[in-house]
Design goal:
By secondary structure, the protein is α/β, with parallel strands linked by helices. It is built from ten helices and 15 strands. The strands form two sheets. Strands 1, 6, 7, 8, 11, 12, 13, 14 and 15 form a nine-stranded mixed beta sheet that branches. Strands 2-3-10-4-5-9 form a six-stranded mixed beta sheet, covered by helices on one side. Helix 2 runs parallel beside helix 3. The longest helix has 20 residues. The protein starts with a helix and ends in a 12-residue tail after the last helix. The structure holds flavin-adenine dinucleotide.
C-alpha cells in the first residue's frame, strides 16, 4: 500500500501533468528541476503566522574533537564518550561503539551510563548487546536534552577544528563515522524516524564542502549542479543525499528498546566526578555532554549555541537546504525547521529575537525567489 508521503508526492506531480496537457512547459524534463526522483521541488511557505516555536540548544564542542577514552579511578573503569559538537546525532552509534569496545564483554555484569542524551542511550543499547546489565543515571531525559534540540541531518560536521586534531583522533573519527553510517541505515523507516533525503548546499568552497570531498562515499548522489539545473535563485549548488533523523521519534524509540532489553533509568544529578565514583557499578560510561566540563574539569569543552525556528509542517517538502548565508532548512514531521546560529561560548538557552527575525526573513527571501510553478508566492 502506498504511504501517505508517497501519495502526497504523487499528488504534487498532478498539476504538472495538467500543465503538460494545456501545452505549457514540461517541467519534469527541465534541468531546473533536478531531483534524483524526477519529482519537482516545492516551495517552503515562510510567514510569521506559520511559526509554531523557537528553541535553542548548546552544542558540546571540543576544538580538538570528541573524547572517547578509558581511565582507571581506583576500582572503577571510567569510559568517556562526550564532546560531539554539532554532529552528535550523526556519530552517536559510532563513538558509542568505540566506547563499549573499551569496556569489553559484559558477561552479565552491571555497568552505569551517566547521561540520557543520544550518547547515553546509544552507549546503553550497545552495552546491552555486549552482555552488560545497564542502568542509566541522568538529571534530564528526552525530551529535555540537547539531543532533542538537534536538527538531525546525518553529517558529522562542526565537530572539531581541522588543525587541532591528531592522527589518532582522525582514526577514531573515521571508524565511528563508518560504523554510524551503516548502523543508521538499518533503522531507516517510521519506527526510528530515519529517512534518506536530498540536500542542496550553497555554501561554496567551505570547510564543509572539503569534508564532503574527503568523505564522498558517505554522501551518495554527490553532484555539482549548474545555475540552470536547480530552481533556486543562486549560482552553483551541490546536491547529495543524507539521512535525516527526527530526534523526537528516534530518541524515545531507542529508550523503548533499552527498557525492552531490561534497562533501568534513575533520575539523578551529580555534583562532581567523585560523586559518580560512589556508584555501585565498577564500569562507568560518562555520556554527560556539556556536563563533562564541570564534572571532569574539561576546559576544552565549550558551548556553541544554536537557535531554531519551526514552521507548520509541509509534507510536500522533501529536501534539505544548507549554506544559504549560514541558514539551513530541514523538513521534519514536527515542523519545517529553520536554522540557525553558531554562537561560541554562549551559555544562555534563551532564544534571541533578533536572530529569530534574521532566520525567518533570510528564509523568506530565499524561498520567495525560488521557482515553484505550482505555488503562489509566499507572502510576508
Ligand atoms: C541547534 C542544534 C542543531 C544540531 N543539529 C545537529 C544535526 O543536524 N546533526 C547532528 O548530528 N547533530 C546536531 N546537533 C548536535 C547534537 O545535538 C549534539 O552533538 C548531541 O546532542 C550531544 O549529545 P550528548 O548525549 O553528548 O549530550 P546531551 O543530549 O546534552 O545529553 C547529556 C545528558 O547528560 C546528562 N547530564 C549532564 N550533566 C549531568 C550531571 N551533572 N548529572 C547527571 N546527568 C547529567 C543530561 O541530563 C543529559 O541526559 C545539533 C545541536 C544543536 C544545539
Amino acid at each position: 500500500m502506498a504511504s501517505r508521503r508517497e501519495l502526497l508526492k504523487a499528488l504534487g506531480a498532478l498539476p504538472l501533468l495538467a500543465g503538460c496537457a494545456a501545452g505549457t512547459t514540461a517541467m519534469n524534463t527541465s534541468p531546473a528541476n533536478f531531483t534524483p526522483s524526477g519529482l519537482p521541488l516545492r516551495r517552503v511557505k515562510v510567514a510569521e503566522e506559520r511559526v509554531i516555536r523557537t528553541i535553542a540548544g548548546l552544542r558540546p564542542f571540543r576544538p580538538n574533537g570528541f573524547n572517547v577514552s578509558r581511565e582507571r579511578r581506583g576500582e572503577k573503569a571510567l569510559i568517556h564518550n562526550y564532546g560531539h559538537g554539532g554532529g552528535g546525532i550523526s556519530l552517536s552509534w559510532g563513538t558509542s561503539q568505540l566506547a563499549v569496545e573499551l569496556a569489553g564483554a559484559g558477561n552479565g555484569e552491571s555497568c552505569a551510563v551517566i547521561g540520557a542524551g543520544v550518547m547515553g542511550l546509544t552507549t546503553a543499547r550497545l552495552a546491552q548487546d555486549r552482555g552488560w546489565k545497564v542502568a542509566i543515571y541522568a538529571k534530564d531525559l528526552p525530551p529535555d536534552t540537547t539531543s532533542n534540540v538537534a536538527g538531525g541531518q546525518w553529517s558529522p560536521t562542526s565537530m572539531y577544528e581541522e588543525e587541532l586534531v591528531t592522527p589518532a583522533f582522525r582514526a577514531q573519527f573515521d571508524r565511528a563515522m563508518a560504523f554510524a553510517y551503516r548502523y543508521f541505515q538499518n533503522l531507516a523507516g517510521p519506527r526510528y524516524g530515519v529517512r534518506w533525503i536530498s540536500n542542496y548546499n550553497f555554501s561554496g568552497e567551505s570547510v564543509e564542502e572539503n569534508f564532503q570531498h574527503r568523505y564522498a562515499g558517505f554522501y551518495p548522489q554527490l553532484r555539482e549542479l549548474g545555475r540552470h539545473e536547480h530552481p533556486f535563485n543562486a549560482g552553483g549548488v551541490r546536491h547529495y543525499n543524507t539521512m535525516l533523523i527526527e530526534p523526537a521519534v528516534f530518541l524515545p524509540a531507542v529508550m523503548q528498546d533499552f527498557f525492552a532489553a531490561g534497562g533501568e533509568i534513575r533520575l539523578r544529578e551529580f555534583a562532581s566526578a567523585d560523586e559518580i565514583l560512589t556508584l555501585e557499578e565498577n564500569t562507568l560510561f560518562n555520556c554527560t555532554g556539556l556536563g563533562s566540563r564541570m564534572l571532569f574539569g574539561d576546559e576544552m569543552l565549550i558551548p556553541v549555541k544554536g537557535q531554531l525556528t519551526f514552521l507548520l509542517p509541509q509534507e510536500e517538502i522533501d529536501y534539505n537546504i544548507l549554506g544559504n548565508g549560514g541558514l539551513y532548512m530541514f523538513p521534519r514531521s514536527d515542523g519545517i525547521l529553520l536554522g540557525g546560529t553558531y554562537e561560541r561560548g554562549q551559555w544562555s538557552l534563551e532564544p534571541d529575537p533578533t536572530a529569530t527575525r534574521r532566520i525567518v526573513s533570510g528564509h523568506r527571501a530565499f524561498f520567495n525567489a525560488m521557482r515553484d510553478p505550482w505555488a503562489a508566492r509566499a507572502t510576508a
